[in-house]
Amino acid sequence: MNEPDQEFTREILRKVRQIEIRSNRLVSEALAGSYHSAFKGQGIDFEEVREYQAGDEVRSIDWNVTAKMGAPFVKQYREERELTILLAIDVSESGSFGSAHRSKRERLAELGALLAFAANRNGDKIGLLLFSDRTEKYLPPSKGQKHVLRILREILFHQNQSKRTNLNEGIRFINRVLRRRAVVFFLSDFIIPEYDSGDESAKDLFFREIASTKRKHDLVCAQIQDPCEQAIPNAGLVLLEDSESGESQLVDTSNPHFREEFARVSADSLERFNQRLRRRGIDTFSFSTQAEYVKSLKEFFRGRISRRHKK
Question: With a threshold of 0.90, does the pTM exceed it?
Answer without folding.
Answer: no
